[in-house]
Design goal:
Layout lengths: L2 H8 L5 H11 L10 H14 L9 E8 L2 H6 L8 H11 L3 H9 L1 E9 L5 H5 L4 E2 L17 H18 L5 E7 L4 H12 L3 H4 L8 H18 L6 H8 L2 H15 L4 E3 L2 H13 L7 E3 L8 H8 L15 H19 L3 H4 L7
Parallel strand pairs: 1-2, 1-4, 2-3, 4-5, 5-6
């Protein structure tokens, strides 16, 4: 049995008994019923995920998957040149990126994984500063043919699983992150294919392109779908034909975390495209996903609706890197603290509401 198959077999639904026990305690806390709203929903979810009324969430990691895309270099869908991907990986390692700042704020480590950056990052890998799972120097141009082979798509997923399993003994709460110039284009194609949307409904502005550039980007996504004809009933086919190496890695990370019952904060548009792939491969994996935020990408709202998730934050973010996931980590900790530290009416000897 392959690692991929074994991982899918280990993903089980949330524990309903733990959820019921959590709900019973939460309903008796010293406040009007469910007065902390979605924080209490989150606490109940975390209990179901961890099978515990004291879910561990203190040890946090943002896993930033990085790769390049042939469509970016060939079709001009981004305002930035492709070499920025490798340059930003070095910035992550140096601690100077947005995700580093926010991760430090919430006490999370940043783990960078090279899935296929079109730069030589071997020295960083040898020095142990990044994890190398490279599939090559970027994907193929999806406007002309498949991004990768089906075997490579499977390898991306397994690489993500491997990273999750390697980190899991020392991590309670995962956050997904991405880096890849042009990666909103394959993400748009994935969401259009799996969600049954027209490219114009899903495709956003990415790095801040203007109207003419946006129309071109929509046409590139449309062409990618027409040329490759991804099968919406086969998520591995969709990933292979119109996806990205880092998108597959993120999907694998989610599946791996779910297989060992760890919650995953799903970041923005790219991460949500990956989460859709993971959910189609294992519907139960969605039980372990927490939508961190709603990004400014116009298709993100629709993607979250398809995934069946309501985001914790809505701050007009569009950076990626895992920044939204990092910002949501304190909310996860807050939910656990409410459940574990707040007194019940009985414990505090406070009179309950009448009727």
């Amino acid at each position: 049995m392959s690692l991929f198959e074994a991982t899918l077999k280990k993903i089980l639904p949330q524990d309903q008994l733990a959820r019921a026990k959590a709900r019973e305690r939460l309903s008796r806390l010293t406040m009007p019923f469910w007065a902390l709203g979605r924080l209490m929903d989150l606490a109940e979810d975390l209990a179901g995920i961890s099978r515990s009324l004291n879910p561990p969430v203190a040890r946090k990691a943002i896993v930033v998957m990085a790769a390049d895309h042939g469509v970016a270099a060939a079709e001009g869908v981004s305002k930035y040149p492709q070499e920025v991907t490798g340059q930003m990986v070095k910035n992550f390692v140096a601690g100077g990126a947005g995700i580093n700042v926010l991760a430090r704020l919430v006490g999370a480590q940043v783990v960078v994984v090279d899935l296929g950056v079109a730069s030589d990052l071997s020295l960083l890998a040898r020095e142990g500063k990044i994890i190398s799972k490279s599939m090559g120097y970027g994907t193929g141009n999806i406007a002309c043919g498949p991004a990768m082979s089906r075997q490579q798509a499977l390898q991306c997923l397994e690489a993500g699983v491997e990273v999750a399993l390697e980190l899991a003994p020392a991590v309670d709460l995962f956050g997904t992150g991405d880096m890849g110039i042009g990666n909103t284009t394959p993400s748009s194609a994935i969401i259009a294919a799996l969600g049954g949307f027209q490219p114009a409904e899903i495709t956003g502005r990415g790095t801040g392109i203007d109207d003419q550039q946006w129309r071109h980007k929509v046409s590139v996504v449309q062409k990618a779908l027409e040329v490759n004809q991804p099968d919406p009933t086969d998520p591995l086919d969709v990933l292979a034909k119109v996806g990205g190496f880092e998108i597959g890695g993120i999907a694998g990370l989610i599946l791996g975390a779910a297989s060992v019952r760890k919650p995953v904060l799903v970041d923005g548009f790219i991460s949500t495209a990956a989460a859709l792939v993971a959910q189609r491969l294992s519907p139960q994996a969605a039980d372990y996903m927490i939508a961190a935020h709603r990004s400014m990408e116009q298709g993100h709202r629709k993607a979250l609706e398809v995934l069946g998730k309501k985001p914790l934050l809505d701050l007009d973010l569009r950076l990626g890197e895992g920044t939204g996931a990092a910002l949501a980590m304190n909310l996860v900790e807050a939910a656990v603290r409410i459940m574990t530290e707040m007194a019940t009416f009985e414990e505090a000897k406070v009179s309950q509401a009448k009727g």
